[in-house]
Amino acid sequence: MTNETRVIPVLELSHISKRFGPIVANDDISISLRRGELLALLGENGAGKTTLMSILFGHYTPDEGTVRVDGVELPQGRPRAAIQAGVGMVHQHFSLAPNLTVLENVMTGTEPLWSLRSGTAAARRKLLAIAERFGLAVDPDARLGDLSVGEQQRVEILKALYNDARILILDEPTAVLTNIEAERLFSTLREMARQGLSLIFISHKLDEVMAAADRIVVLRGGEVAAERKASETNKAELAELMVGHRVTRPKREAATPGEIVFEASRLTVSSGGIERLKEIDFFLREGETLGIIGVSGNGQASLSQLMSGLAKPAAGEMRLFGEPVTALDVHDLVEAGIGRIPEDRHKQGAIGEMAIWENAVLERIRQPLFSRRGIVNRAAGQAFAATIIEEFDVRGGTPASRTRLLSGGNMQKLILGRNLYRRPRILIASQPTRGLDEGAVAAVHARILEARKQGTAVLLISEDLDEVIGLADRIQAIAKGRLSAPIAAEHADPRRLGLMMSGDWTSGDGVSGEGNSHAS
Amino acid sequence: MRLERREHRPLVLVVLSPILAVVAALAIAGILIAAAGAPVLEAYGRILTGAFGTRLAATETLTRATPLMLTGLAAAVAFRARLWNIGAEGQFYLGAIMVAALGSSVLSSLPGPVLIPLLFAAGAIAGMALMLVPLWLRLRFSVDEVVTSLLLNFVAVLFVSMMIDGPLKDPLAFGWPQSMPVAEHTLLPKLIERSRLHIGLVVAIVAALLVYLLQARTVFGLQSRAAGLNPEGAVFAGVPLGRTLVKVTCLSGGLAGLAGAIEVMGVKSYVTTDLSPGYGYAGIIVAMLANLNPLGVIAAALFTATMFVGADGMSRAMGIPTYIADVTVALSLLTMLVAIFFTQYRIRR
Ligand SMILES: Nc1ncnc2c1ncn2[C@@H]1O[C@H](COP(=O)(O)OP(=O)(O)OP(=O)(O)O)[C@@H](O)[C@H]1O
Ligand SMILES: [Mg+2]
């Protein structure tokens, strides 16, 4: 111990404070990082994790406090100085150019503009050497836009390493990854730590934090709430440290489903000339949750677009409340009381530059409550937003503040609130807890279960096995655009679901039949 | 030293920044005036007296501000929804020639109170129609409307010169290419006797108020802002994207067309190819100076007109070049852009 303390830490954040107006995002935070260490940063939505990392990387200037790399203080607010000192950052929303190749992306910003000779050949050699060293295989000449999300993230990491990063920061790197991709990412990160790099990653997934990290720092309300060695703590304790009280995900109680409210048969959806969904069959019943589980990229996006009113089926039949419909349209869905939680909250779920109240009412703006003869009733809109903020515990904003300022989790609560507040008859939820902290996940689950209890038919599209097992009454797997036959939740266990997700049934055998007849 | 995004924009700053911008622009222009060998403060005074010193000057400034308000609104409305209408100049001319054609035709037997609103509408519709072309190209083929609306300006002006040298040519104009004048009773009533100032100014101010209310209080305003800020999110929330853009286009093109109609009926009574000294383009500057705020457009148009008219007076009185007015307006646009920037960002050490 005495030996360790004498070593200068690779990175040292001391007494960092940062306020945004009335909000204290960081309050006297001190953290240090040793060589070869993998540190996890945990904390509720809005706890100040992203803010802290942005200060470290120079995107924000702290109100107080210093950042030291190898004992040398970094000038504040200069990303370039941070990069030169060996700090690399992988943002949650990637900052790469989709129309350039991998190599070009990695090189941009490193080449002096006035250089006549392009160092492409040397750069390629360096890139390949790094990729080799850390097992980050990529094709340097692939266009970035053609890569999967997981591969794009690999390019982000490569870019940081290309800039000779010795300290790597990853903000919620696994939020957009499939489980397999996440596992691969962590084995890469471990390998990097073994080779002497130091890493900080932010995550809300306690499993992966426990599995991967050496040390865990928990932030709460902008302060360091606790620091633990991974070997000396457990998930329950971490969850409690984050939220301040014990967290347990609510349990689903058995219920008798009611009428069928939506039915799809042999539905096919195409986009860009490709069949994204192939002859799928499913139905939704009042007071019941249908879970669609699958590895991302197997047609979930199309399914959620279809059900949100953004895509039309190319073939097949649909019945909504018993009536045949040829296409769902946003306006009709909203009018019919169908709630929609989109997969991507920043792109689809909210308009960042608009006020919270405007986002709360935008989809229902034509309803008499919020406008009359085309004139918006601002008071009603603001009151509605205030109610959602109150009831759904949206922190960090007032009805009039800009939505962009909410932390990711709080934005999700806003979207959830505007949908659930009016007791929808059907709820379409795509990845409803992506990026949420344990406490918020439990809260969202409780809300969804409550809606179901009150008779809402829920379609839950998720990649999170635990979530689907915890919430769904019936489960269908999606693979290569096809849906498996449903199984009852009672018959579901991770191993079986894993098999279903692999798409074995698409070739015939397996999980046919049962569950459709189930109605316990 | 570095820039940081401001999350709260203090109201003081928002109000103060255009004023500071104008002061800064005048200060820089002062260097030019000094270089031209004139006493700077006196020159500033001459700008003011040139623009407002006499009854004639004041009415002239207001007359000039009228079309600028309307073209400024046209740009502001479109830019808010991220529809880049650079074609107000062409829409202005098309509105003008429409009015000249109808106002000198058999329709002119209609009584004034019927005909005047009719001609306003006709001018606006001409402007709308012209802007609908770039919108259609954008929605159908993803063609950038910056380029198409800009190029249509030249098409429109050439069309106008064809008309006034052809079917609409005034036979009594000694061979000059100019259109037939509109009927006497379609000329807009004057606001002040024996001046060029006409009720078009009132129309423009009312238009600014209406546009303001439209943007701040209506479903259309909310939806067009959403469409501009995040089209994908707007579609998810059920905003009819195409329809909203069509409405924005009609409003924007219509305002520019109306500007042309009013200029003909209020000032000239006929159309020539120099009817507009670039009102359409200047409208873009006016809109930017106003930070796209419809009420700000009124002030920005007054400022721009003051500079143009006042600098005329200044140069005559002090013997320095008139282009100093153009330079000052251009400078104020630059300083305004800087000012807008600093209402959104701050410098941190
Ligand atoms: N630029 C900003 N202006 C104003 N407030 C901000 C700004 N950035 C963050 N905040 C606020 O500071 C707090 C901390 O935000 P931060 O993004 O650091 O949270 P986080 O821990 O990363 O949360 P999440 O897990 O949801 O991503 C929140 O209340 C947020 O609303
Ligand atoms: Mg964050």
TrEMBL record, chain A:
Family: Belongs to the ABC transporter superfamily.
InterPro entries given in the database record: AAA+_ATPase, ABC_carbohydrate_import_ATPase, ABC_transporter-like_ATP-bd, ABC_transporter-like_CS, P-loop_NTPase
Keyword Mitochondrion: no
PANTHER family: CARBOHYDRATE TRANSPORT ATP-BINDING PROTEIN MG119-RELATED (PTHR43790), GALACTOFURANOSE TRANSPORTER ATP-BINDING PROTEIN YTFR (PTHR43790:SF9)
Protein name in the entry: ABC transporter ATP-binding protein
Recorded superkingdom: Bacteria
Stretches for region Disordered: 500-520
Domain annotation ABC transporter: ranges: 11-246, 262-505
Organism name: Mycoplana rhizolycopersici
Alphabetical UniProt keywords: ATP-binding, Membrane, Nucleotide-binding, Repeat, Sugar transport, Transport
Annotated GO MF terms: ATP binding
TrEMBL record, chain B:
Main location per the UniProt record: membrane
Pfam families: BPD_transp_2
Domain of life: Bacteria
CDD domains attached to this UniProt entry: TM_PBP1_transp_TpRbsC_like (cd06580)
Cellular compartments annotated: Cell membrane
This protein's record includes keyword Transmembrane helix: yes
Transmembrane regions listed in the UniProt entry: 12-41, 61-79, 91-110, 116-137, 146-164, 197-215, 278-303, 323-343
Topology in membrane: Multi-pass membrane protein
InterPro entries: ABC_transp_permease
UniProt keyword annotations, A-Z: Cell membrane, Membrane, Transmembrane, Transmembrane helix
PANTHER family cross-referenced by the UniProt entry: ABC TRANSPORTER, PERMEASE PROTEIN, GUANOSINE ABC TRANSPORTER PERMEASE PROTEIN NUPP
Name assigned to this protein: ABC transporter permease
